[in-house]
Each structure stands twice: as C-alpha cells, then as structure tokens.
Amino acid sequence: MSSRRALVIGGSLGGLFAAHMLRRIGWDVQLFERSGDDLATRGAGIGTHAELFAVMQEIGVPIDANLGIALQERVCLDRDGEVSHRLPMVQTMSAWARIYRPLKDAFPAERTRFNARLTAVECKDGGVTACFADGTREEGDLLIGADGIRSTLREQLLPAAQPRYAGYVAWRGLVPESDMSPASHAALFHRYTFCLPDGEVLLAYPVPVVDDATQTTHRAMNFVWYRPVDPITELPDLCTDETGHQHAQGIPPPLIRRDVLAATRASADRLLAPQIAETIHRTKQLFFQPIFDLESPQLTFGRVVLLGDAAFVARPHVGAGITKTALDAKALATALDTSATIEAALARYDVERRRFGQGLVARGRRLGAYLEGQLKPIAQRSVAESHQDPMTVMREMGAPHAGVRELSAAAGSSVQP
Ligand SMILES: Cc1cc2nc3c(=O)[nH]c(=O)nc-3n(C[C@H](O)[C@H](O)[C@H](O)COP(=O)(O)OP(=O)(O)OC[C@H]3O[C@@H](n4cnc5c(N)ncnc54)[C@H](O)[C@@H]3O)c2cc1C
Question: Are 213 and 63 in contact (CB under 8 A)?
Fold first, then answer.
C-alpha cells in the first residue's frame, strides 16, 4: 500500500503524530493547519506515559533528559501548607511544547501548509477532496481529521456528536522557578502537589520549558485548579471580556477581565495552601479552560478518519490525551500497513480506537464525578459525587498508569507496548 496520498487536517500533536507515522509506512503526506504559524508558544504542562515516548522514539525523536522532570512522590497540602497525605509515585512531567517542538522540527517544512483552513470534505469512491477557505482543493486517497475538539470534519460528518460541558473549569498557569520564593520552591518544586478544598481540586507540578528565542531549557511550576462553574448562571459571565463581548467557545487568556482574575486570586488566598496561593499570585498569565468531554459513535466515513481530540476527548484528570493521540496515530499506521485494503484497515481502526476512546472518557467522568456533582443538590448526588477521598484522588488523578495498558488490551489494540 505504498505511494498513497494522505491529507492530514490539523498541525497540532494529532496531525503531527499521524503525518510522521504514515510517512514511515511509505505514504505521501501533506499537512494542513489553519493557524498562521508555529503553535509552540502556547500550551502548558502535561503528564507522560511510556507509550507516548515509545511512539516518539519510533518516529525518531530523541528522548533526552530535557523532555521531562522525574518526580518520586505526591503530597496533599492542607490550608496551612502542611503535608496531610503522602504517596510515593514515580512520574515524568513534561510540557506541551516539549512534545510539539521536536515533532514539528522533524517533519519536512515543505509538507506543511499553514493558513490552510479546511471548510468541507467531498467523499468519492476510493478517495477524498478537501476544500479550503482560500478556495483551493486537494485530492487524496485518505483524509485524516486531526482538527481538535471543535473539528470541522466531525461537524460535517457527525453533527450530533458535540462536546459536553463537565460542570467545572480548570484555572491554569506557569511560573518560572526563578520567580518563586525560596520557601514555595522548597515546598513544591520536587514533587506533585494536591490541595483539596471542599468541592475543588488543585494539582501542581514542575515542568521543563524551552525559551524559543535562546533555545535554552528552564523549569517552571505548572498548576491546574478545577472549580465548579454553573453553565447558566456563572460561565457566561466568566467568558465575558472588559468590552462586554461574550466568548462562547472559551475566552482568550489576555481578554479575561481583571475583576475575574482578582476574585480567583482572592479565592486562592482563602482556600489553598499559602505556597500555592503565592504561586498563583506570581503567575503572569492566569487563564481558565471550561472542561468538556466528547464521544464519537463512529470514527471512519469512507476515506475520512477522525483522530485525537476530533474523535474523543477525555477530561484532563486522566492525563492521557496526548498519549491517546499518539496511540491513535500508531494504530492507524499499523492497520494501514498490515491490512489487505484501506477499507479493511479503517474498519479495524474504527473498532479498536472507539473502544479505547470510550474507556478513556468513562475513566475521566469517573475521576471528575466529585467535581461535577457540586452543581447538584446534596440529596441528588451519588456516592462518587459526594465523597472525595484524598488518597484516592492522589492515586488516580493524572496517574502515570492512567489505565492506558488495560484499555489497550480491552480494545484488542494492535499497538500494545
Ligand atoms: C496550542 C495548543 C496548546 C495545547 N496545550 C495543551 C497542554 O498544555 N496540555 C494538554 O494536555 N493539552 C494541550 N493541548 C491539547 C492537546 O494537544 C490535545 O488534547 C491532544 O494532544 C490532541 O491533539 P489534537 O491534535 O487531536 O487536537 P488539538 O491539539 O486541539 O489540535 C487541533 C489542530 O487543528 C487545527 N484546526 C482546527 N480546525 C481546523 C481546520 N478547519 N482546518 C485546519 N486546521 C484546523 C487547530 O488549529 C489545531 O492546531 C493544546 C492544544 C493546542 C492546539
């Protein structure tokens, strides 16, 4: 099955993993990204898994010590900043740009078209035509939709599959270690830290960050603070900027109102360990993302394939979104390389990655049940929605095993490590 042409829509991690993996099995690959330039300046911390590094290694990306920071334990800090719970757990934390940058650099620049926004796809027997906003059209034997949670392709082919708001947002930020006080640095920088105020979860961990100008690696503290936000009475206000404009798909970080930021910092002082509150105060660009999850009942449509966040989005507590994306790409390449026809390969991919995605979304919902339950009256909450056991949270949230191995086995995956 060599010399086939694949059109990959989306130049983020899903698109890059798919593009690399298909090139490795001899496909002619062209990548299309709607943004005008490199995405590396955005993004924050991520958890990693052995399965992610295995795919990167297969692509030929060197796995060196700068790719992540290895941690040995997790702790929970109480309101006074004292350790209330402790759990040994070995885990490597990285940053989105540390994965994106080497994948992008290793992909031939002439094979990527930026400013290329897909508007529609036309399917025909044995091929596809991609239509772009600038009026151009491209033909291929296969089209891979790696265009994220708001996928244009999914919207066209599967309009009923919509992201579902989970009932809470994640406040996030990064603080360079040089901006932290010595006391907070000493308390936080060598481990994975939780704070568990009533109805909320905060986690913080160090990550490597590359300065794009100097190409030097430094380290920063990354935090994620999950807070219930009512979709009707609170979220629209949170997403409204200083001019009164409401950003329905999520407000860009620089547009978040000063009073919203001030209220969040005041809540940090009231609810969190002082070392974490101080870190939040020292964050230059505090921002939030509403949490969604998404399930697609079908992943292939003729010669069109959904992959990565376009196909399934699990809540970030699972900590495996990027690993799932890498495994989607590997499964697609394996199926194409070892099946008699493209149709047979896509049928295999559809069954396998749907099972895996469903399992991951279910795990994310289970881990987030307590946060989601906060919007319900106490009498209507299930046990999982009412009770948050610190040791269980520390053991399961963003844990390095994340069920990836078990879910791969249950999905009958051909890409088990
Ligand atoms: C800039 C950025 C920063 C991120 N930072 C983090 C992070 O810090 N931690 C974390 O866990 N996850 C982060 N993510 C999400 C993470 O990349 C995904 O959850 C996961 O890796 C799946 O990636 P994806 O490529 O499927 O989707 P996405 O990463 O969402 O990428 C989709 C891509 O498709 C492009 N696109 C969308 N529509 C079209 C269209 N019509 N035509 C052409 N291109 C289109 C988008 O511009 C985007 O580049 C980030 C995503 C982005 C884009």
Answer: no
Question: Domain range for residue 298?
Answer: 5-46+98-163+294-371+402-410
pLDDT beyond 90 at 404: no
Token pair recorded at residue 20: 């690399």
Q: What is the pLDDT of residue 1?
A: 46
Residue 402 has pLDDT above 70, yes or no: no
33 C-beta neighbours (distance < 10 Å), count = 25
Ligand 1 contacts CB of residue 33 (under 6 A): yes
Q: Is the CB of 321 inside a 6 Å radius of any atom of ligand 1?
A: yes
Choose one of 250, 273, 292: the last residue of a domain.
292
Position 64 confidence tier, pLDDT thresholds 50, 70, 90: confident
Specify whether 228 is located in the same domain as 283.
yes
Q: Taking the chain, what is the end-to-end CA distance rounded to the nearest angstrom?
A: 24
Task: Choose the residue to mutate in 13, 38, 323, 353 for probing ligand 1, maximizing ligand atoms within 8 Å of C-beta.
Answer: 13
Distance 388 CA to ligand 1 centre (A): 31
**Residue 344 has what pLDDT?**
97
274 CA to middle of ligand 1, Å?
33
Within 13 Å and on the Cβ side, how many CA atoms surround 76? 18
Q: What's the CA gap between 189 and 102, in Å, rounded?
A: 25
Q: Answer yes or no: is 388 within a domain.
A: no
Supply the pLDDT for residue 225. 97
Assess whether the C-beta atom of 293 lies below 6 angstroms from ligand 1.
no
Q: How many domains does the chain have?
A: 2
**Same structural domain for residues 286 and 206?**
yes
Q: Which of 353, 352, 388 is nearest to 368 (CA)?
A: 388
pLDDT, tens digit, 9 for 90 and up, residues 265-306? 999 999 999 999 999 999 999 999 999 999 999 999 999 999
Question: Residue 188 is part of a domain; what is its CATH number?
Answer: 3.30.9.60
- Report helix angle 50-59 to 13-24, nearest 10: 50
170 lies in a domain? yes
227 lines ligand 1 (CB under 6 A): no
Considering only the C-alpha atoms of the chain, give the largest distance between any 2 of them, rounded to a whole number of Å: 65
Ligand 1 site, residue 289, Cβ cutoff 6 A: no
